[in-house]
Specification:
The chain is an alpha+beta fold. It folds into three domains: 44 residues, no CATH class; 338 residues, Spore Coat Polysaccharide Biosynthesis Protein SpsA, Chain A (Alpha-Beta Complex); 72 residues, no CATH class. The chain contains 14 helices and 24 strands. The strands form eight sheets. Strands 2, 3, 4, 10, 11, 16, 17 and 22 form an eight-stranded mixed β-sheet that branches. The longest helix has 18 residues. It binds uridine 5'-triphosphate (UTP). The site of uridine 5'-triphosphate (UTP) has 22 residues, from loops. Uridine 5'-triphosphate binds next to loops.
Length: 485
């Protein structure tokens, strides 16, 4: 851009900002050199400036509230045990349908890795964080192993889409290159950044300045993936390859079965599924557990946040189970056509925003100094992928097992940490070993007295694992990894 058009552009953007009370975003423009000034103007110009007043009214001045509708009901699901009365299904048919799709190259894996990982406090993209209980392998490598294992077994290419954010994209790409794409063909790995939203002062709605050269922005939530898959060209790439379904997992759960033939088959072929979006569920056993719940509203599956479900409904039981018991582990199958349809619809599609109050460093407008707040000072707006469930005609839910498939690393310590993740990896491996007749040392309280890790390359399921040549016993205190078939 030449000097003159840059000046015109800045003047025009200043006018638009002033009109919505956000003129402070250019407060330090005059102090900046030519390139930095142009970069600031470009970053501010990329915000949806005219929409800010509506967002502030809806999410800063007010907090959206959810009133449970009168027809709120638990969502039906297929039980973990396919023979369960009332929740039964055909395991062999599902598995064959999934395996056929994998062999025909009709399935892609998708990992959302654009989050900021603030609770973990790790300096870098979360996917680079160690995760393997014994090997210490990073999260990205644990997930890549699922693709390597499945490509090997089903003899079809499984492209891997990885969504980053503008904040961690370059570092993520550099890590993939340094790690040689974890053994995958780089042509089959599609890395692309998600969109961002402006981060606003929680009292006034003023967009914060992250530096004198940039407004503060935050990734637009994992729901942003449904748009980013489209705008990045990933969907077009997948369609060219003949891919029909995408397996969605979050980057922080190394036990997520990123490729699960049974779930793929149910999503693609079961009559309860329209092939648009399916989900796995974990049984919620304690009313106080803070987990989103699959419900049915107006005949469609919808996710209801735990804080939105009245306490008496959270505690209501049916027999020995909670009535609203379908917790969300964030494991989905999504149809490629569904994503294309959402993005091409004439009315457009919009997922609702969820607001979160967070601590965001900002530039003080008087002193120009960077302030690290000690209390939450900002509102971040994000969309969530599960809100797309309500846009599906028919959406299937399959129960899964907590130990088999859910070991997220969210926090630096305590629950959902590296430590708890390693414990769950060990417990899963211990169960698989014991099912195969191997003696596993256990403490008096019943915990496995060893550290164990099974790569999906060695076995994707307990049944496969049982066919490997295994030791008779594991020694107390041992660290053992099963990495090869
Ligand atoms: P979380 O909700 O756990 O958020 O994301 P987070 O950003 O990783 O961590 P906190 O809340 O700041 O501590 C769940 C999954 O969704 C992805 C994350 O990378 C993670 O895989 N995600 C989240 C995105 O890809 N983009 C986002 O904007 C938010």
């Amino acid at each position: 851009m030449n000097q003159q058009s840059a000046v015109v552009n800045e003047a025009e953007i200043r006018e638009r900002l002033d009109a919505v009370g956000q003129g402070h975003l250019l407060r330090f423009a005059a102090e900046l050199s030519g390139d930095s000034r142009a970069a600031l103007v470009e970053r501010v110009g990329a915000l949806d400036i005219e929409r800010l007043p509506r967002l502030i009214e809806a999410y800063v001045r007010n907090k959206p509230s959810f009133a449970p509708p009168t027809d709120l009901a638990p969502a039906p699901y297929l039980a973990l045990d396919p023979a369960t009365p009332g929740h039964s299904w055909d395991l062999d048919a599902a598995r064959s349908a999934g395996e056929a799709l994998l062999s025909a190259g009709k399935v892609a894996a998708f990992t959302v890795a654009g989050g900021q990982g603030t609770r973990l406090g790790f300096d870098g993209p979360k996917g680079m964080h160690r995760a393997g209980a014994v090997t210490g392998k990073p999260l990205f490598a644990c997930l890549a192993d699922w693709i390597i294992a499945a490509q090997d077994r089903f003899d079809g290419v499984i492209p891997w889409c990885v969504m980053t954010s503008p904040i961690n994209h370059d570092q993520t790409v550099a890590f993939f290159e340094e790690q040689r794409y974890f053994g995958l063909d780089p042509d089959d790995v599609l890395l692309f950044p998600q969109g961002v939203m402006p981060t606003m002062d929680k009292d006034t709605g003023a967009v914060l300045l992250a530096s004198k050269e940039a407004p503060a922005v935050n990734p637009d939530g994992h729901g942003g993936s449904l748009r980013a898959l489209w705008t990045s060209g990933a969907i077009e790439n997948l369609q060219r390859r003949g891919v029909e379904h995408i397996s969605f997992v979050q980057v922080d759960n190394p036990l997520a079965r990123m490729i699960d033939p049974v779930f793929i088959g149910l999503h693609a072929a079961h009559p309860d599924s329209s092939g648009e979006m399916s989900s796995k569920m974990l049984e919620k056993t304690e009313p106080s557990e803070k987990v989103g719940l699959f419900c049915e509203i107006g005949g469609r599956v919808s996710m209801v946040e735990y804080s939105d479900l009245p306490e008496e409904l959270q505690a209501q039981r049916e027999g020995d189970r909670l009535l609203f018991n379908a917790g969300n582990p964030a494991l989905h199958m999504i149809g490629v056509d569904f994503i294309a349809k959402l993005n091409q619809s004439d009315e457009g599609f919009a997922l609702p925003y969820h607001r979160a109050e967070k601590k965001t460093p900002y530039i003080d407008l008087e002193s120009g100094e960077l302030i690290e707040p000690s209390e939450t000072n900002s509102v971040k707006l994000e969309t969530f992928v599960f809100d797309a469930l309500a846009l599906c005609e028919r959406s299937l839910i399959l129960e899964t097992d907590r130990i088999d498939e859910f070991a997220p690393i969210k926090n630096a310590s305590g629950s959902d940490s590296l430590e708890s993740c390693a414990r769950i990896q060990t417990e899963r491996a211990a169960r698989w070993l014991e099912a195969a007749g191997v003696v596993v040392p256990r403490t008096e309280s019943g915990d496995a007295d060893c550290t164990l890790e099974i790569s999906p390359i060695a076995a994707m399921t307990a049944e496969e694992f049982g066919e490997l040549a295994l030791p008779d016993r594991i020694d107390a205190g041992a660290s053992v990894v099963f990495e090869t078939p």
